[in-house]
Amino acid sequence: MGRSKLLASIVVGATVGAALSMLDRTTREKTIASTKKMKEAISYYATNREELQVLVEEKVLATKVLCESVSENVNSIIDKVDEFKELPSTIEGMINDTKSAFSLPDKE
């Protein structure tokens, strides 16, 4: 049984697509500029690892805070849904109480 050529075909297709897209001057210039910018960032953080660590810790903390906020919001929504589920029985009880109050004969 022969090997699947899917992965090789995907790689070849991506390579050909990238090469064809580089024929466009604007794409080529933007790619070069972003590559230079990425290289500078990598070089900077390679020499300033402490700053990279602080940056990563800040992002992790921000993500944690966001997750906690989302969790609180979801719990709040669940509580509201539970309240709405109880609402029909509460309304039904109020209607029954009102009916019984008006249907009682006066004892005068």
The global form is elongated
Tell me the number of helical segments per DSSP (H or I, 4 or more residues long). Answer: 3
Write the H/E string, N to C: HHH
Number of strands: 0
Outline the biggest β-sheet. Answer: none
Main structural class? mainly alpha
Share of helical residues: over 70%
Over all CA atoms, what is the radius of gyration?
A: 33 Å
Overall pLDDT: 90
Q: What is the terminal-to-terminal distance? A: 99 Å
Assess the beta-strand content as a share of residues. Answer: under 5%
Short description:
The protein is 87% helix and 0% strand. It contains three helices and no strands.
Notes on the protein architecture:
By secondary structure, the protein is mostly helical. The chain is built from 3 helices and no strands. It has helices at residues 6-21, 25-47, 49-103. The chain is elongated and about 95 Å long. The model has no long low-confidence stretch (mean pLDDT 90).
Notable features of this structure?
3 helices, mainly alpha, 108 residues
Write the layout of secondary structure elements.
Blueprint: H1 6-21, H2 25-47, H3 49-103
